[in-house]
Design brief:
201 residues, alpha+beta, ten-stranded mixed sheet, globular
Amino acid sequence: MNERLSLPALFMAACAIAAIAWASPARPADLSDSILLVAKRQLQDKLYGSTILIARPIGADRHVGFILNKPTQMTLGKLFPAHEPSRKVADPVFLGGPVSPEVIFAPVQGRESPGGRSMRVLDDLYLAIDSDVVDRVMQKQPAQARFFAGMVLWRPGELNDEVKRGLWYLHDAKADLVLRKPIESMWEELVGRSERKASSI
């Protein structure tokens, strides 16, 4: 998981995300489509232990994703007190990942793109990337969205290697799981479900 990309590299990745998303055909749930990653119990990493991520391919065997179950103590209003749309969102900001945590992204549930370079993640989930689009989501669709600071970026082949090493359980990605409330027991539920399934095989 690349934690050292510069801000220009982040925006290049964002452009790649937007360009590739519309061209990618729907496929079965595997690493060539959006996937839910559930950390196995043996993954004791300080950042990724006990986490759930949504991951999406962006071409050349690279992936982008967000940690779904790490709410922070901050709200958008606390982060941007002079920004009126931010003050209207009461929910906490989530730590999406270690790459450029100063950038806010917003997955939005719905079958219509919120605009700009937004990326289609699922049939009914888009990722707002542009700051003006994120602002509009804050104003008009905060109940259908979640706000993440930062992201996770995997280098070519890196996520595939992590799966082969047995770090993650793979689940079909669904918008209601990505935006689920509350999230406190979500990891334990998904891990338990995966362990029961594995033991029955």
